[in-house]
Every structure is written in structure tokens, then in C-alpha cells.
Amino acid sequence: MTCSMNINAIRYAKPHARVRAMISELVTPGQKRGLVVSPGLEDALRQLYSTTYGTELAGVPTDGIRLLPVEKAFERNLVNAYDRVIRSLDGPPRVLVVEMLRRCEVDNLKAILGGVVTGVGAEEVGPNLLPLGRLSRLRLDDLLAARSVTDVIDSLGNLHYARVLRGALDRYEHEQSLFPLEVALDLYYYRHLWSVVEALPSSDRAIATRMMGMRYDVINVDWMLRYKAIYHLSAEEIFNYTLPYGYKIDDEVIHRAGSAPDLSSLIAELPDPYRQLLQPLTKESGNIWQLEVGLNRYLWHGAKATLAGYPFQIGVILAFLFLKEAEIHDLKAILEGKRYGRSPDEIVAFLWGEL
Amino acid sequence: MFTPAQMKRISMAILDSDLSRATEEMGRYGAVHLIDFQELGDWAGKLDWREADEISATYEAYRRRVQLLLQTLAIQGVHGPEEGVQVAPRKVASETAERLPIIEADVGRVVDQQRRLQDELGRSQLLIEQLQLLAHLAINLADLRKLSFLYFAPALVPAENLDRLRGSLASVPNVILSVVYQDGAVLVFAFSAKDNSEALERALKSAYAQRRDIPEELTGTPSEALGQVRTRQMTLVKQNEEMDKAKEALAIEYRDELWRMRWRLSINGVVVDAWRHFGTTQKTRLVSGWMPARSERDFLSRLSEAVGGRVVVHTEEPLTPSSHASDPPVPTHLENPAIFKPFEALVNTYGIPNYREIDPTPVAGLLFVLMFGIMFGDVGQGAVLAAGGFLLGKEIVVKGHRALGWILFGCGLMATIFGLLYGSVFLLDQMIPALWFRPIRNSAFFISIAIVFGIAVVSLGLFINVVDAFLTRDYLRLFLDRYGLAGIWFYWGAIFVATQYLTGRSVDSPAIAALLGIPLLLIFSRDPLLELLESNRSKRALVNPLLLFQSGIEVFDAAMRYMTNTLSYIRLAAFAISHAGMGLMVIAFVAMVRQIPLGEPTVYVIGNVFVIALEGLVVAIQALRLDYYEFFTKFFKGDGIAFHPFVIPGIPLSIKK
Predict the structure, then answer these.
(1) What was the pLDDT predicted at B363?
(2) CB-facing half-sphere around the CA of B593: CA atoms within 13 A
(3) Which of residues 234-263 of A touch B (CB under 8 A)?
(4) A30 with A50: CB under 8 angstroms?
(5) How far is A18 from chain B (nearest CA, A)?
(6) Which stretch of B192-201, B252-261, B263-272, B317-326 has the lowest confidence by average pLDDT?
(7) Is B400 within the bounds of a domain?
(8) DSSP state letter for B629
(9) Cβ atoms within 10 A of the Cβ of B90, count?
């Protein structure tokens, strides 16, 4: 144990130093509070100029009418953070972080498919894509020029996404819905990501499996809630559309929860801490978004706790990346709240991170 | 030699109509290191030439499409370079835009048809597998389709979903038989009770299974149907072969055109990529770059000739008092005589000298071969290395390793000379007399020689640093740096004191204070002085405890480094002695196999090859280490950027470099 800790201390010295520096750049609770209570959108934007987002926000108009350029600035910052972490790593941990960023690639692909299916042009879809730059393998010019799902698949060349989408093409053509395409991509992505987690050296695998397992639990619970409440899917479908990996959620739980007749019985079938976490929220309102916020707050606290532990391990990197994503979610939520004139309390209800 | 080629920054305004000719001339001349226009300052942002990015993206897309066509038609080989390829990116792009879709449509028709055929072939193959499994049943297919209590669903399931599919049916009685794997999917026969058919269907659908029911048109028993499918399959195979032939015909028809297209796109693509560095006004394109000052006049006259005099040029010297820190960095173009050229690779591995820095290549190269020779002194083995280096350098056996070859040649030559001095030939030390001394018998003497050598090299490094600081007017470094005049004072003072003690003479305290104390005090004062100057003469800098502590560490570190750096050269003697020791070991092995026929020569040759390969490598690493860490650290920053002139691969240069 001590020996592997020593090796990790050497291996993670550089990434740890970099991540620590980046943690210090995260928006502080005080700054976040300032944003929440700011008198309006323009004022909130002005406050953000003095944060780490100032560089990306330079040149973005602060007249406050269009939030898209601001959101893109946040996303550029997120991609940049990932890039900095990736550059500090080597070997399997580096592969893992690269694959984690590929989530954005999948989201871009889903947005492009959405554009193709709904007939929205490239000029509208393009600006909405996450700016991944050299970290993306997608040939965006070709993809944005695609006129059909088949064109999209052809433009993907040898990427695995092409095989996955080809497998879902029959269902898309039959149902004329994005749902089977999106679910197929999500399932492929998360299964592949888990295989990368399992390929980590044993010293990293235990912590990564626990942390990513918690994340997979939250994804599975979130999906089950949606499948049940919005899509009204059967137990068989819910089982097939969820992930066979996780920390506390296993196939047995998914079976029981998937067979539950309604949302509250589904939650009753979940193991703790998810049941404890979600049951009071269901009683309050039962809104899916509120349950999602609850789940992500749980992850946020987990990430914070990891940062307080032993520093030279992959968990610190995973925790930082989650906190960064949570921060960007929260900033978007705050600005959106300001745009619609929501009160500070209403805005806080949407935030993943504590103030 | 010793300083990089003098550069000039050249800025040109060229009419858009002359842009292709001007870029071609720049590429042919091969002496302009392009500066990205955006690097010139905030004002340049307004002159960003977006169209260049768009053309570049178009070229990238065309290149990919041509490559895809070549792959689809299985056209192998490389075409080019081709004489007289036109540098006209816009024209080539518009011609490609016209022709490429026509070829793609032609090829696409055949490819689509073949894809459909192959899909059908795949499906019929699956059908054959299904029917083979049912072939022994003497029932009619029509009856199989109308089972009363059992629900039967043949389906193709993505292999990664199969376990999940089985799991999803945990509460439904079912049987799922895997029949055959095909292209990452599994053909399954799924059975359940008729009452559970909906659950089975839902599970299959959500596992992305594709139904593969036996088509209605197939009649009779499974074995009769099998015959019908096989007949159809043979027809499909024939049609597929015809498609292959059609593709071959297309490959012959379009091969030359596609090769030419790829070549033209490749050359013009490089030009377009260069355009991305340019700025723009309404009618002119603005180009900025660095070029060797001596080429300026010749290049400008050629450029002017190429564009009929329609060019406005402004040149300026780099690093003048009016230069800003944010100006684009001046690239370094090393200019060494041919004999030292190969050693540039050694220096560049450590770092590129910055434009104002002394180029250490000649000194580092000489030191490298000299130290290699000292550690690897052997006439025979040195000659082998020199011969190998000569063959590599002249590219007689292997191509592409000229620099390495000549470095090896130099090392081999020096090893031969030291072999004569040590009297060693192929590890034997009795064959010839030693012209100087035998390392293994004079180890103490050799170590003292190595230390003297180390003192000389360290002093040389310090001297270069002082000259460099003087030339760049960096007076703080010149006088107070640990490797400046204060450092030299301390180093030689320490050597004097050490020599006195070693020879049994004493040195009195005032002399020690003068020789060691004062220079260390000067080095100590460097950082506080710097802080004082930078903080607008605030006296607080002189009493900042953290700074004083840091300066104390600096002084201690400097003193330690001088000692360790000098003693590090003992490795010269150590490795030379180890070389002789290796010789003794090989001779001992040879003696052990004396009784075996051909044992002696075999072991002797293998021993020599082993020593040349292993020790040669180790000694080269040690020589490099001494160059990098004991010598370069005294003066060399290596934070420059390399001079990369714009050239167009495939278009010959118009001047001899």
C-alpha cells in the first residue's frame, strides 16, 4: 500500500499540482452568492469578468439578450480545463479523462442528429455545438452538411458511433424519433467509458470504480426516473436502456425499480443513499428536475469529500472535473434565472453546488 | 558560426490578384518564416482574413473526399511529384468542385448498388444459417408460422446487448438460442409463451434487435426453402462480382485523374494553409515573416519580378530599442560549417538557442566527440564506429541518418586516436604500445586529468556566459550571476584554495575571505538588488526575509554545484577504466572456451560487438550528459524557436540552400 502510494505520489505530482491550481480558480461560494443576488443579468455577467471565465468572456456582448455566446464561453473554459488536465497526465488515466471529455463529442453528435431529424439547418446547429477543437474526432463540416441520418452515419467514417447508429437505424426509420438513436449512443458511450475505467492500473481502479460507479448510479437513477415518468416504458425496456455498471445500483435493483408502477414506488426500491435522498423530494413536488438536482448535489458533496482526502490519486482529478462541470451548470442556471427575473431562492433550488 | 543568421522582419502588401504567384515565389525561394498576422498585435485582429480559413477547410474536405474515392476504388500507390503543377488555389478548388461530384456520383452509383447487394447477401446468409438449424424438421414453414401456444421470434441482436436482453426477460419464461455471430451481431431464436409475446417483443426492440423472420415467399419444408435461398444467393454472388468488375473499370477510368487531383490539392493546400497566416484589407493581402538578412535583396527582386512590381515591402531589424516584448519571437537559423552541422541535432535536442544567444554547436560538438574518445579509447573499435558512421553519413547502406552518421564518424575517429594513446586494439592492450598511458594501470593519474579537464570545460562554460552577458548588455548577469564574473572569481578562488591544501600549503583567513567570501557575497546580493531595481528602489527589498533566505540558498546551491559539476567529470576516467575492465572480462571468457573449436574467435568477436554496442551507447549518453548538465547549464537558455521557412513540398526550390 505504502509503495503504491509512493508511486502514485510521483505519478500524480504534476497533475496534482495542476489540478490544485485549477481548483483555486473555481468560482468561490462568495462569488456565486454575489451572482445569485446580483440585481440583473448584465450585472451578473460583469461580475463573471473578474473570474477565471474572464478570458473566454472577453468580447462577448453584455447586453444580456442572448445567452448562447456566454454559454459557449463557459463551455470553452470547460474544454480548456479538460485539456489542461489531459496534458498533465500520461497512460491510462489520460485515456480516461480524454474519454470523459468525449461525452461532449456524443452531445455534439446528438445535436447534429437532432438538426437533421427536425430539419434545422447547419447555421443554427453549428453555433450550439460544444467547441472541442482538436479534441474532437468528428468531421463537423461534413456532419453539418448531412441531409439525412444515413449521411451522418457515412460522415462518421470509421468511428464506432457509425456502427452504433447503423444498429439503431431500423428503429429510427420505423419510429421516426430521435429517441432510439440517442439512447444507443448513450449506452455505447457509457459502456465504453466503463471499459476504460476497468483498464486503469489497480492502484487507480479501486477509487475510479467507486467514483465513476457513483456517477453511473446517478445516471441510471436519472434515466429510470425519466423512462418511467416521461416515456412510460416497461420493465424490460428500462432494463435494456440502463447501464450494467454502478456502485450501489445493480441489475436486481433495476429490475425491481423498473417494475414499479409509479415514481414513488420506483424510488422506494432504490438502495440508500438514493432512497433517503429522493423520497423527501418526491413528497415535496415530485418534479424530475428537482430529483436530478438532488442526485447531482449528492455527487457534488462526494467530490468535495474526495478533495479533502489523500491528494495523489486519480480521484482528485475526477472530483475536480465533476466540480468544474457542476460549476458551469450552476453558472448557466444562475444566468438563466436572472434572465427570467427569478428570485435568489428560486435560482438556488436549481444549483448543484452549495453556496 | 557561434551566432545565428541575422534576421529581418519583412512585411508585404500584395494585391489579391497576385497572391498565388507571390505565395508560390515565397515557397520556391524557401527562406521566409511566416508570422501569423494575429501575432502582430491587437490591431491585427481587425485584419483577420477569414476567407483563408474557409478555403483551407474546403481543401481539407476535398482531400478527404479524394482519399475516400481512392480507398473505395482500391487505387494503391503514390503519384507525383508532377512537373508544372499550377499554384492557383482558387482555380484548383473551383475545378475540383466541378469534377469531384461527377466522379463521386459515378462511383457512388456502383458503391450503393454493391452495398445493397451485400446487405442482401448478408441477410440471405443469415437465412441459410436459420434454415440449416431447422432443416431436419419435416414440417411446413407455413405451420411453423402459425404455432398455437409458442411465440417464435428470430432476430439479429447487437452482440453487446445480448446479456442485457436475457437479463431484461428475467421475469418472463423464455428461451433465447444464439445461432450465429455476424459482424458484431448475434442471430437468436427467441421463444416465449404466446401470452408473453408482447414482453418478448418489447425486450427485443429495446435491445435493438432486428427481426429476421423467414420471408413469406419461402414455402415448403425448411430444407426445400434452403435450396431456394441458396439459388438466390448464387445469383447475388454473381451480381456482386459484376459490381467488383464495374469498380475496377471505374478505377482504371479515374485513377490518373484522382491521383492528379490529390497532388494538386496537396500542393495548393499547403499554399492555402500559408494564407491562413495572412491579414487582409479590401484588395490586398498582408504578409509578414522573418528571413535571413542576406537573402532579403535577392528574394525581394524575385518577388517583385513575379508580381510585376505590384508589391509594397517594409523591412525592419529585429530587437531594436523600439521593439515590444509582445512582438513575435525571432526564429533562430543556425549557420554552422558543414563539419559542425550534424551536431546541431545534439544542441536542438536540449533547446533551440534564442536569437540573441551564442550558438554552442561547434564547442558542444567538439567536446562531445572528445569526451566520447576519452571514455571509449580503442583503435579497433573506434575504427569500426568510424567506418559505420562513414557508411551512414554517406547514405551508402541506410538513408536518412546523415547527421547521426557523421557524429558517429567523429566519435569513432576520436576513439581511435585515444586508442593509440592508451595502446588498446579491440580490447587487447598488449598488441601496440601506449603512446601516453594505460588507463587501468594509472587510474589515480587519469582521475586527476579528468578533474583538470572538468575545470577547463566548466571554465569555458563560464567564459561563454560572461561574453554572452556582455554582448547582450545584461550587466547584472555579467557581474553578479552565479555563473558570471563573481562565479568565476569564486570558482577559481576555490580551485586555488583546494590546490594549496592538497599540496600541503596553508591559506590565511583574509585570503580565503577575499577569494571565496567576497564573490559569494556578490552572488548573494544579486536577487535583493534585482528586487530593489524592479520595485522602484524600495529599500524593503533589502530586508525581505524570504528573499534573503532564497539568496542564501542560491549561494549554497552555487557552491555545491561548482563542486559536483567539476567532480562529475571523473566519469571520463571511470568509463575509460571500465572499458579496459570489459576488455579483461572478454579475454577471460575467451580463455574459458579455448578447448572448444572456434570458441576463441567466436567469443572474442561477440565480446567486441557487445562492448561496441552496449558501452558505445552508455558512453554516448555520458558524453551527452556532461555536455547538457555540466556545460550547457552555465550559459545556454535554449528557449528560442526554430527557423521554419515556408516551402511547398513537391515544388523544387529556386535557390540552392
Answers:
(1) 94
(2) 17
(3) 234-237, 239-241, 244, 251, 255, 259
(4) no
(5) 22
(6) B317-326
(7) yes
(8) I
(9) 13
End of a domain among B212, B236, B260? B236
Q: Return d(Cα A184, Cα B163) in angstroms, integer.
A: 16
Domain boundaries in chain A?
Answer: 89-199
Task: Collect all residues of chain B within an 8 Å Cβ-Cβ radius of residue A239.
Answer: 164, 167-168, 203, 206
Letter for the amino acid at B142? A
- Other CB atoms within 10 A of residue A39 CB: 8
What SS3 class is residue B305? helix
Whether residue B579 sits in one domain with residue B438: yes
pLDDT at B540 over 80: no
Q: Give domain status of residue B241, yes or no.
A: no
pLDDT for the residue A153: 94
CATH code, domain with B205: 3.30.70.2750
Predicted confidence band of residue B325 (pLDDT cuts 50, 70, 90): low
Q: In sequence order, what are the residues at sequence separation of 6 or more whose Cβ sits closer than 8 angstroms to the Cβ of residue B412?
A: B382, B383, B384, B385, B386, B387, B388, B389
For residue B211, list its beta bridge partners.
Answer: B155
Return the bridge partners of B315, or none: B10
Q: Do B199 and A170 touch (CB under 8 A)?
A: no
Residue B78 lies in a domain: no
Same domain, B561 and B576: no
The residue type at B308: G
Same domain, B550 and B574: no
- Domain residues for the domain of B194 are 125-236
Domains of chain B: total: 4
Whole-number pLDDT of residue B473: 85
Residue of B nearest to A250 (CA): B167
Task: List the alpha helices (DSSP H) in B34-157.
Answer: 50-72, 89-134, 141-144
B492 with B509, same domain: the answer is yes
Q: Which residues pair with B285 in a beta bridge?
A: B14, B280
Instruction: Count, in order, helices (H) and strands (E) of chain A.
Output: 20, 0
B290 vs B645: CA distance, rounded Å:
8
Residues B216 and B131 in one domain: yes
ipTM of the complex: 0.86
> How far apart are the two ends of chain A, measured CA to CA in Å?
37
CATH of domain A89-199: 1.20.1690
Residue B313 DSSP code: E
Grid coordinates standing for B444? Answer: 589515480
Q: pLDDT under 70 in chain A at which residues?
A: 1-14, 62-65, 284-286
- Which residues does residue B289 pair with via DSSP β-bridges, in sequence order? B10, B34
Q: Do B189 and B338 reside in the same domain of the chain?
A: no
Beta-carbon separation of B171 and A170 below 8 A:
no
Percent of chain A at pLDDT exceeding 70: 94
Give me the CATH number covering residue B287. 3.30.70.240
B86-117 pLDDT per residue, tens: 889 999 999 999 999 999 999 999 999 999 99
Q: How confident is the model at residue B81 (pLDDT cuts 50, 70, 90)?
A: low
Instruction: Give mean pLDDT, residues B194-202.
Output: 92
The SS3 of residue B77 is coil
Q: What is the mean pLDDT of residues B195-199?
A: 92
CA of B538 to nearest chain A CA: how many angstroms apart? Answer: 30
Contact A237 B210 (CB under 8 A): no
Among A142, A237, A244, whose Cβ lies nearest the Cβ of B206? A237
Does some domain include residue B105? no
CA angle B173–B174–B180, rounded 5-degree value: 165
